[in-house]
Amino acid sequence: LEKSQAKLVNFTNMVISLGKDDPRRVIHSFKVGLALILISILQYFRPSFYAFGDNIMWAVLTVVLVLEFSVGATLGKGLNRVLATGLAGAFGVSIRRIASFSGDKGKAVLTSMFVFFIAGTVTFMRFSPRLKASYDYGLIIFILTFCLVSLSDNTENELLEVAQERLLTIIIGSCIAIVVSICICPVWIGQDLHNQIAGNIQKLADFLEGFGDEYFNNLGNTEEAAGDNKPFFHRYESVLSSKGSEETMAVLARWEPCHGGFRFHHPWKQYLKVGNQIRLCAYKIKALSVFLLRSEQTPYELRSRIQEPCTNISMESGMALKESLLILKHMTKSSMPNPHVANAKNAAESLKSVLRTNPWEGADHLEIIPAATVASLLIDIVICVENICEAVDELATLAN
Amino acid sequence: LEKSQAKLVNFTNMVISLGKDDPRRVIHSFKVGLALILISILQYFRPSFYAFGDNIMWAVLTVVLVLEFSVGATLGKGLNRVLATGLAGAFGVSIRRIASFSGDKGKAVLTSMFVFFIAGTVTFMRFSPRLKASYDYGLIIFILTFCLVSLSDNTENELLEVAQERLLTIIIGSCIAIVVSICICPVWIGQDLHNQIAGNIQKLADFLEGFGDEYFNNLGNTEEAAGDNKPFFHRYESVLSSKGSEETMAVLARWEPCHGGFRFHHPWKQYLKVGNQIRLCAYKIKALSVFLLRSEQTPYELRSRIQEPCTNISMESGMALKESLLILKHMTKSSMPNPHVANAKNAAESLKSVLRTNPWEGADHLEIIPAATVASLLIDIVICVENICEAVDELATLAN
Predict the structure, then answer these.
(1) Opening angle at CA B93, ends B90 and B99, nearest 5
(2) Are the CB atoms for B253 and B193 separated by under 8 Å?
(3) pLDDT digits (tens, 9 = 90+) for A173-191
(4) pLDDT at position B226
(5) Residue pair A146/A91 in contact by the 8 Å Cβ criterion
(6) What chain B residue is nearest to A122 in terms of C-alpha separation?
(7) Quick check: B300 contacting A, CB < 8 Å?
(8) How confident is the model over A71-125, as pLDDT tens digits?
(9) In sequence order, what are the residues at sequence separation of 6 or more whose Cβ sits closer than 8 angstroms to the Cβ of residue A106?
(10) Which of A154, A367, B14, B329 ranks highest by number of CB atoms within 10 Å?
């Protein structure tokens, strides 16, 4: 009994945290329920000019399958569904007419051959990465509708009538899904992509701003790693594996109409470039973060000789990223070049000139190696930060 | 005209390379065509004991949607579809019976309320990452079937008959899809996951085995980066973003029955752990690879002082990974510990003792920093390689 009670509590907590993490999830669930109620009302007060018959089923099917979490996904699926159904229906009817010229038995054989050939070809097309990204759903629906029309038992006149009704029902279903998706608390996936990229820059900036103090002054925050509130030097880790989700979002965002600050042809591809630069920087930071936990391997005295330029580099790099965040937020390229990038580069130069004075002369090389690696990685990070800032500038230029 | 000709050539090349990259894609397309022909034969020689009627449609729908590239995905979708349809059908019929107690108008209102509530709840459940991974398709089909049954116009007796026929048709469709998927050149996603992990280890091993020569002897291969044949120091890059695909494969692999060397309860989760260790090593290698292009920043004379231990570390690490590959291939943990891991650790110790002799005494610190960083990263990589080997050993133990 206690076990099942604990499970119930666990389950409830999971549900609550799911809703708390993103309250839009709760709203989306309401939206799906609402869209289905709209369909059932439509069925109840069946419009007199149009006898839905059993075809109401196709409206339900369309709403359940098309209404996705984001507007972009809903629009993409809805348009794919309507276009693919229309095309495949017309194509299927033509194939039937061609096949019907060859007698009763010939018709069955010919239809099967067409189904085999067309379904196989379209299935193969689904492997193309470019088609898969935007039109995968449409291609499946094409196969589906084509087979249904070709293999149907009905006579041609019945079939045409049924096909028209179904297409109309699917259009109505898609429209309901799209209207509900756009009109009630819309979730713009483009906005989400924008926020995720901005969030990733923020995480890197937090790491860089915190790194200097942590490495040189050993604040001992490294112990807080446990618990829910991840400290700054773990938060960036989600950036490392963000490639897949960014690519999916960018594809879906292209379906979205003008909303908020985003045009229809917003340069979504440039977000992927920014994302790649962010990840390159995150890989470097991953290598750097190892030394936070091992800062005691190098005596403070040795570390302190490069403390000032290193702290400057990481602080200015962090501030450069935050400056870049402002550009991303307002989508206006500032007329002046980012001052913190220049500062960070200057700090890197002064680190290099400190190193030229051989600050660790006479020290044990095994002890200076961690500090030397930190210096080297920081110098590399400045280049990465500059690349991120440039990519963001280009994004702001393209967006206007 | 020339433009369209060029496009056609491009398109043909793309199609050919799609097929060449993975010939199983062509076979899969044939399989889909074949499954649909099986359905159309079934319809033509309609079994006398069972009047499919228009329900043949559901078999087509099921085959098109369920027959996926891999056996795991097909089995998962097929089982999800059958179970969800059965459950949702039974549930929908009960709800209709409950609603029918409250008069004609009450019934419509009550049904709508149930649809709203149930569809909303199940939609919300789809956001749970754990349910989404394995049962997303089942949850959608549950909503779909439940709404179709609840909103249907038919009387209860008609409905029960239709529901039975449809369930049977869906079972037949799923069975055809599963049989075709398993019996004709099956694509086991578990095998694919195994191969991908092995391939990733191979890529790291190639990098490490090649690194020493390239960095210290400057073979100049770094120029070959262009062209299709990526050199060893770029091939590992695909490992960096492999997390998503590995997770998807591991989820699908769990549906697969015993095949080849894999049991039904093969430890697929352990593959993810191995994959994570591989990625941690790849991040380090990413940081290391920067120095391949910049080896000339440090005069050869300075580099040569750590050449022997560094070359040993990278060579032995690469060989340790290849030894681990053999364990992965035969899935039998060898009784002796991996000798190359011990060698690599020894090489790391001897690198440390070389460093203790302050090999670069008097040299410009700015010049020694890249070499020092390479040394430091190589010492870290030995730990990563050891972790990979341990994870593979654990996998081999769990698999038996």
Answers:
(1) 140
(2) yes
(3) 999 999 999 999 999 999 9
(4) 44
(5) yes
(6) B29
(7) no
(8) 999 999 999 999 999 999 999 999 888 888 888 788 888 888 999 999 999 999 9
(9) A99
(10) A367
Q: Are A241 and A200 in contact (CB under 8 A)?
A: no
Contact B116 A36 (CB under 8 A): yes
Chain B neighbours among A 2-31 (CB < 8 Å)? 14-15, 18-19, 22, 25-26, 28-30
- Residues on chain A touching B43 (C-beta within 8 angstroms): 151, 153
Question: CA of B233: how far to CAs of A378, B282, B287, in Å?
Answer: 23, 11, 12
Which residues, 6 or more positions from A90, have their beta carbon under 8 angstroms from its beta carbon? none
Residue A214: closest CA among A293, A302, A286: A293
DSSP class of residue B262 equals B
Which residues of chain A have a CB within 8 Å of the CB of B56? 151, 153
Residue B100 — φ and ψ, nearest 5°?
-70, -15
| B349-397 pLDDT, tens digit each | 999 998 888 888 878 888 888 888 899 999 999 999 999 999 999 999 9
A364 at the B interface (CB within 8 A)?
yes
pLDDT digits (tens, 9 = 90+) for A272-295: 999 999 999 999 999 888 888 877
Burial of residue A229 (CB within 10 Å: 0-12, 13-18, 19+) is: exposed
**CA-CA distance, A116 to B179, in Å (whole number)?**
18
Q: Is residue B132 within 8 Å of residue B51, measured between CB atoms?
A: no
Does B376 sit within 8 Å of A56, measured CB to CB?
no
- Please indicate if any CB of chain B lies within 8 Å of the CB of A276: no
* Three-state secondary-structure class, residue B321: helix
The pTM of the full predicted model, rounded to 2 decimals, is 0.90
Cα–Cα distance for residue pair B133/B347, rounded to 1 Å: 44
Residue the block writes with tokens 């069972």 = B50
Burial of B346 (0-12, 13-18, 19+ CB in 10 A): middle
Check A115 against B40: CB less than 8 A apart: yes
Q: Do A373 and B370 touch (CB under 8 A)?
A: no
Please say if the pLDDT value at position B228 is more than 50.
no
DSSP state of B224: G
Using an 8 Å Cβ cutoff, are A270 and A398 in contact? yes
Which member of A44, A243, A373 has the closest CB to residue B372?
A373
* Among candidates B32, B153, B369 on the partner chain, residue whose Cβ is nearest the Cβ of A119: B32
Interface of A with B in 335-354 (CB under 8 A): 352
The total of other beta-carbon atoms located within 10 Å of residue B386's CB is: 18
Does A383 touch chain B if contact means CB atoms closer than 8 Å?
no
Residue contact B43–A244, C-beta within 8 A: no
The residue assigned the tokens 């750590």 is B306
Return the DSSP state at B336. S
Closest C-alpha to B266, from B77, B128, B378, B396: B396
What number of CA atoms fall less than 13 Å from residue B134's CA on the CB side? 9
**Among A72, A134, A73, residue whose Cα is nearest residue A262:** A72
Cα B375 from Cα B309, distance rounded (Å): 9
Taking contacts as CB-CB distances below 8 angstroms, the residues of chain A near B14 are 128
Length of chain A: 400
Residue reference for tokens 């390239």: B214
* Helix%, strand%, coil% for chain B, nearest 5: 80, 0, 20
DSSP lists the bridge partners of residue A259 as A262
- The count of other CB atoms within 10 Å of the CB of residue B9 is 10
